[in-house]
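Input record (one chain):
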Amino acid sequence: MTDNQLTEKIIGCAIKVHRALGPGLLESSYQECLYYELVKSGLYVEKEKPMPLIYDGVVLECGYRIDLFVEKQIIVEIKAVTELPPIALAQVLTYMKLAKKSVGLIINFNVSLLTDGLKRVVNKYV
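The corresponding structure, as predicted from the sequence alone:
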């Protein structure tokens, strides 16, 4: 499955979750429901995947965790905030760099219309 096909499927599942729950819940609630929908749709998903930092040839466990890692291809960061802080983009780009992945999604569920809370992130340096 291509990155575009996969992100389309992820976004479709996220819209389904958002339609059912609406805005105003905790990130963990949306994460669990989106995880359930993605798995139900037949995708391989890792939840809270540890992401080590490799520095000077040494693997360091720094506490980085990817919210959802779909098909070992797409990094999904889930938010439930009034306004997406700039650090959210930096966070996803860092995860993408560490995982050597080219596409990520930031999904902010705390919006009236989920398409307003979607951000596709591309790391062109992979």
